[in-house]
């Protein structure tokens, strides 16, 4: 259900519109290895949580941008809404003119009928168009598949769709093949094919990322014009916050299969709350070469989705992390490896022999007990690293650091896996904002 606005903050215009699609704790998991035989033999399996409890509402007539790095789950979310990615748990509800329909339970013929209401614009227009079909055949193919039109009516609707997307005069483009068109013209043809069934919702997956800079704004403006003329609703998937600022009414920031911040575009840009959102905004290129902009980008890479960090999944990269963020054994390994990488005054061989095999830290746990060559020396090593980097956020979570016989003991504070909570005009999943629970409008 949509969240109530925080007291003192009036509801946005978007939140007052009726819902067209709503996800409730949506999960999409992929098993990387193993199956029935592996389970029978007791072999380990790994599961990627591409979506891990996503609850969002797409309101009729809005553009909701979904932004994040590669691997954040944004494309999986778009595919799940169309039934192209099978759901593991949770639900997807489409509020059609005929009533509520559970997309997550649709199969076969019912799912194919859904294509008349929900369509997708793919990232690469060259791959999305059949090279052996003329543009007229490609654009009209959905009408043929769904037996909506044929003959003169088919031709009329194809020509109308081509003209609407700017491929005019129609006679010049209808008989051409994809190889005869530019990238921007191909994407216009893909959009024409998507709108020809008069859908309610378009899922646009990076629709301009493969195009030249000179045509990107034109395609986005075309999509806005179609939204106004046809009453479309968009889910706009992108890694580019600059285009999202131009195109979207609201923005959802995704990280490792979850929405970590969602709210009106103006609010996200003016007052970002989540440290990941702040980092994405700082990564937007500055067109003025004379202006120096600080680039305090997240350290490291996006973690393995098959073995996400404990607590907040962003905490290993977060410059604002605190004790409750979920520090663990793997973070201790990263700390040691970064210390050795710096290399200043480090006797690598001696220190490596002292701590032993770091693979023992790969099992995520909040209390570490390691058999080391000299426990007191190991404690001294970690204290020296602490003195070198006192601002390292990990130290905020260390509750125990001591020698216990021949073992090194390191204990971390119990972490929190934050849910989306109301903070001003947005919903944010961060321990720094312990506001009111939210189901995310």
Spatial extent as radius of gyration: 26 Å
Largest sheet: 9 strands, mixed
Distance, first to last CA: 7 Å
Helical content band: 25-40%
Percent strand equals 15-25%
In the CATH classification, which architecture of the largest domain applies? Answer: 3-Layer(aba) Sandwich
Number of structural domains: 3
CATH class of the largest domain: Alpha Beta
CATH homologous superfamily grouping of the largest domain:
P-loop containing nucleotide triphosphate hydrolases
Mean pLDDT: 89
Quantity of strands, as a count: 17
Number of helices: 15
- Give the overall silhouette: elongated
Structure described in brief:
This protein has 441 residues and is of the alpha+beta class.
How would you explain this protein's 3D organization?
The longest helix is centred in the middle third of the chain and has 18 residues, at 213-230. The protein contains 15 helices and 17 strands. Helix 8 runs parallel beside helix 9. It is an alpha+beta fold and 441 residues long. Strands 7-8-9-4-10-11-16-15-17 form a nine-stranded mixed beta sheet, with helices on both faces. The chain starts with 18 loop residues before the first strand and ends with a strand. The chain has helices at residues 36-41, 74-81, 108-114, 125-128, 135-145, 151-164, 170-173, 183-195, 213-230, 241-247, 265-270, 275-282, 329-342, 348-355, 375-388; strands at residues 19-33, 46-54, 57-59, 63-67, 89-96, 99-102, 118-121, 201-205, 233-238, 250-255, 258-264, 367-371, 398-404, 407-412, 421-423, 426-428, 436-437. Strand 8, helix 9 (213-230) and strand 9 (233-238) form a beta-alpha-beta unit. The chain folds into three domains: 1-117 and 199-311 and 418-441, 3-Layer(aba) Sandwich (Rossmann fold), CATH 3.40.50.300; 130-192, no CATH class; 327-412, no CATH class.
């Amino acid at each position: 259900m949509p969240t109530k606005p925080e007291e003192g903050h009036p509801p946005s215009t978007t939140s007052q519109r009726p819902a067209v699609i709503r996800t409730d704790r949506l999960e999409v998991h992929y098993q990387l290895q193993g199956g029935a035989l592996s389970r029978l033999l007791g072999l380990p399996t790994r599961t990627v949580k591409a979506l891990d409890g996503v609850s969002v509402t797409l309101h009729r007539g809005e553009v909701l941008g979904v932004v994040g790095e590669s691997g954040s789950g944004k494309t999986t979310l778009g595919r799940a809404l169309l039934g192209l990615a099978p759901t593991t748990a949770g639900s997807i509800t489409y509020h059609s003119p005929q009533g509520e329909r559970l997309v997550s339970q649709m199969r076969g013929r019912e799912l194919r009928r859904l294509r008349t209401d929900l369509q997708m614009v793919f990232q690469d227009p060259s791959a999305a168009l059949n090279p052996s079909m003329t543009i007229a055949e490609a654009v009209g193919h959905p009408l043929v598949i769904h037996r909506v039109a044929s003959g003169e009516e088919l031709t009329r609707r194809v020509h109308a769709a081509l003209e609407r997307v700017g491929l005019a005069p129609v006679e010049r483009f209808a008989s051409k093949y994809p190889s005869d068109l530019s990238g921007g013209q191909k994407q216009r043809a893909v959009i024409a094919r998507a709108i020809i069934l008069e859908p309610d919702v378009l899922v646009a997956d990076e629709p301009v990322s493969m195009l030249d800079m000179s045509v990107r704004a034109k395609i986005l403006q075309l999509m806005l014009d179609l939204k106004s003329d046809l009453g479309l609703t968009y889910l706009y998937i992108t890694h580019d916050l600059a285009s999202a600022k131009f195109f979207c009414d609201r923005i959802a920031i995704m990280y490792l299969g979850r929405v970590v911040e969602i709210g009106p575009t103006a609010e996200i840009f003016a007052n970002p709350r989540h440290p990941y959102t702040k980092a994405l905004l700082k990564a937007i290129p500055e067109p003025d070469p004379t202006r120096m902009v600080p680039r305090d980008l997240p350290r490291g890479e996006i973690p393995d989705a098959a073995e996400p960090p404990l607590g907040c999944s962003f905490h290993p990269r977060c410059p604002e992390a605190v004790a409750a963020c979920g520090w663990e054994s793997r973070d201790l390994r990263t700390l040691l490896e970064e210390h050795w990488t710096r290399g200043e005054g480090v006797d690598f061989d001696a220190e490596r022999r002292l701590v032993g095999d770091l693979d023992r830290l790969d099992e995520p746990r909040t209390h570490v007990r390691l058999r080391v060559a000299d426990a007191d020396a190991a404690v001294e090593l970690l204290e020296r690293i602490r003195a070198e980097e006192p601002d390292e956020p990990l130290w905020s979570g260390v509750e125990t650091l001591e020698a216990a016989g021949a073992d090194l003991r390191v204990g971390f504070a119990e972490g929190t896996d934050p849910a989306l909570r109301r903070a001003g005009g947005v919903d944010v999943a961060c321990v720094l904002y312990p506001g009111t629970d939210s189901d995310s409008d």
